[in-house]
Amino acid sequence: MNYRSVIVARIVPGSEDKVAEVFAHNDRTTRPQDFGVIGRALYSLDDLYVHVIERNVDPKTSLSKARGLPTFKQIGEAIAPYVTPYSKNWKVPADAVSKEFYNWVPATKAAPGPTFQTVIVARIKPGAEPDVARIFGESDAGPLPVEMGVAGRWLYSLEDVYLHLMERTDASLARAVQDNHGKPAFAKIVDDLSPFISAYNPQSWRSPVDAVAKEFYRWRVDG
Q1: What is the pLDDT of residues 175-198, one digit of tens each?
Q2: Quick one: 103 and 54 in the same domain?
Q3: What's the CA gap between 146 and 123, in Å, rounded?
């Protein structure tokens, strides 16, 4: 069984390469897998930083072992000039971990093949998680997600940050949106979500593709 943790923080725009270098050095010279970490991906959108960690052991067990190590402290110190807590109430690293409130995978697995991870960033109305989960549950019961190449989705929130993580069979979300934009089912879910979900940065948002975070680092234990 694998576990996923999604960390949310703020990042200094333009510092992605520096943060990537820190993790690349760590992942190359240490053995994160000894503490259950089998993969990680780093994303950013404007000033938001998203760190997706995949583990093969319970995160509580993994973190309790790792936090006492010099490497854990060194990473924190190295990225501190660039990555800072999102929450004003942050006290410990666990306060940066977003909460999963919905997940879905199709009942029938897609044919074997590569999948592509996409992270959509937006803002969520506080307390709206049950409504958003209900809307996606109703939509995912129909054919739309499979038609759009979605092989799985997981929704997370941290305060007013909303994260929509998708595994896709097609790398191009833009094309999927374009191909399905005229379908009533697509228009319905967009309309139903509008009271609860809004753009992370309204000034730069022009279309759903503008909500897709940019991946700037990826590592897996198997290469």
Answers
A1: 666 666 667 888 899 999 999 999
A2: no
A3: 25
